[in-house]
Fold this protein.
Amino acid sequence: MNYQTETFDQVIDEIKPLLEANHREICASPGLLKLAPDYESYKALEDAGVLFVFTARKEGALVGYVVVINTPNLHHKDVKFSIADTIYIKPEYRGSINGLKLLEFTKGQLKLNGVDYLTVHMNTDNLFAGLLKHLKFRQIEEVWGAEL
């Protein structure tokens, strides 16, 4: 398995089917929340230097990704935050060290780029808290949602 930083343009075509699979697997309100990524905004964020894509590839094929957005935090202006926008590993590559290695790689690359703190949100139907705890994350809040 190879872990690397790639550009949005490098992965856009390959990432689309994985985004669709991820959405089918975790979407909390599929009737309302149709998958409709704003690819132009993703590209603009990357061009602005705040969006990064970290990938896992097996024999050249994309099998997982972490997309992060570096963002200011209004409560902690002196700390550089990064938010994991989306994380996905194909099911057949889970249950081994692939997710661990991808997240370790992500953390290392962010640290090299001056990021101080990474937040990860996860769907309650697809928990990977054990993996995050192993990587020294701790639960810091809960997020709730409701259709209006």
